[in-house]
Design brief:
This protein is an all-alpha fold and 234 residues long. It is 55% helix and 0% strand. Residues 1-18 have low confidence and may be disordered.
């Protein structure tokens, strides 16, 4: 089982013509991102890491888990295993025990070991800097690759997770539930230089304000710009 190929099934966006969007839609996105930037001055990924490889590992662990849980697990994990070579020769049973709280620990352990071995075999143990190379690694889908590209290498990247999917739909910026299509839709709306910070701002808004159940519309700073019919007005 390849966990991120199952949970994070994101293939490369299909090529096609750029959607023609009304200026008002782009203006509303720009206004929302400015407001969210003021509400959350830092839009950094919340996975604690020191190196691109640590971020890659943490993001693989975050599938069907929370960043908070991953951050509780990784300090001990990275004391035991720090580099790809350490993970490549890690006893699978011990690795499973260390990462068990993140869920799906058996599949994640296999993916981490296979990913580390692939890094050593094909990339000299160095995390690659392109989408095609990253998604060729075991356990790595587009979401994981975009997290690494945007936050480790400053390559503009739109991350689409469950929070971004929910917020983008509620705000009317996409009508799709497919992560590939949502990524494309947001790329068309957000200036490239803001892909990473913009999608992270939407993610954090979904994580802390526009939650799946009982969203906090009463303290939502973008309430006026939200067309979602299920919202409550401030």
């Amino acid at each position: 089982m390849n966990l991120h190929r199952t949970i994070d099934t994101m293939t490369r966006p299909r090529s096609g013509s750029r959607a023609i969007l009304p200026p008002a839609t782009r203006d509303r996105m720009a206004r929302i991102l400015r407001t969210l930037a003021g509400a959350t001055p830092t839009s950094q990924v919340e996975l604690v890491h020191r190196t691109p490889f640590e971020l890659l590992v943490a993001t693989i662990l975050s599938a069907q888990s929370t960043d908070a849980m991953v951050n509780r697990v990784t300090p001990t994990l990275f004391q035991c295993y720090r580099e790809p070579a350490d993970f490549a020769r890690a006893p699978v049973a011990r690795l499973e025990r260390l990462i068990r709280p993140t869920g799906f620990y058996r599949a994640k352990a296999r993916n981490l070991i296979a990913c580390a071995r692939a890094l050593l075999a094909r990339f000299q143990g160095i995390v690659p800097r392109t989408m095609d190379e990253l998604v060729s690694l075991p356990g790595v889908g587009r979401k994981t690759a975009n997290v690494v590209l945007g936050n480790a290498f400053a390559v503009p990247a739109v991350v689409v997770d469950t929070h971004v999917r929910r917020v983008a739909n509620r705000l009317g910026f996409t009508a799709s539930t497919d992560p590939d299509r949502i990524e494309q839709d947001l790329q068309h709306l957000i200036p490239r230089r803001q892909w990473t910070t913009g999608s992270q701002a939407l993610l954090l808004h979904g994580r802390y304000v526009c939650t799946a159940r009982a969203p906090h519309c009463d303290r939502c700073r973008i309430n006026r710009d939200c067309p979602w019919e299920g919202k409550t007005h401030r």
